[in-house]
């Protein structure tokens, strides 16, 4: 996906979102066995096609959820107390999650690289969360549906997974 055109990606994503959302809803509720290996295959194939450094849209348009451990580690790295770091960069949302006050992320470099990559928040390290054990929960909670229009890798992953499920499991 070299030289990613974000506008074209978004157009494609919005066009496909409704159908892929229906697939994800059904995948989240399916009782059929065999979904987990297909998720792993789709994940692997996705990363053969998508390069995050061509995009960094997650860092531009989204914010991770910070754990207390993340805050402690990152604040020490930047030379601030956890309280100072929180006050300067973070906020607690109504749902209790701690996130960046604004986007793009203050650690996003001009080259689309994270300036604290080695110690980035756990949520960033796991993003886009394709192979999590709670895939069905994430599908039901619309995590992937939301991310389809924000993350090119998510769009590719869900398309690949849908094709794999259709080919190996039939309708779900």
Describe the structure.
There is one protein chain. With 172 residues, this protein is mainly alpha-helical. It has 2 domains: 6-60 and 128-168, no CATH class; 62-126, no CATH class. It is built from 9 helices and 2 strands, in the order H-H-H-H-H-E-E-H-H-H-H. The chain has a two-stranded antiparallel sheet with strand order 1-2. Strand 1 (90-92) and strand 2 form a beta hairpin. The relative contact order is 0.22. The model has no long low-confidence stretch (mean pLDDT 93).
Short description:
The chain is mainly α. It is 56% helix and 3% strand.
Beta-strand proportion:
under 5%
Low-confidence residue ranges: none
Structural class: mainly alpha
- State the total count of DSSP E strands: 2
Helical proportion? 55-70%
Tell me about the biggest sheet? 2 strands, antiparallel
Give the CA-based shape.
globular
Number of domains: 2
Order of helices and strands: HHHHHEEHHHH
Strand order of the largest sheet: 1-2
**Roughly how many Å is the radius of gyration?**
17 Å
- Number of helical elements: 9
| Mean of residue pLDDT values | 93
Q: Span from first to last CA?
A: 30 Å
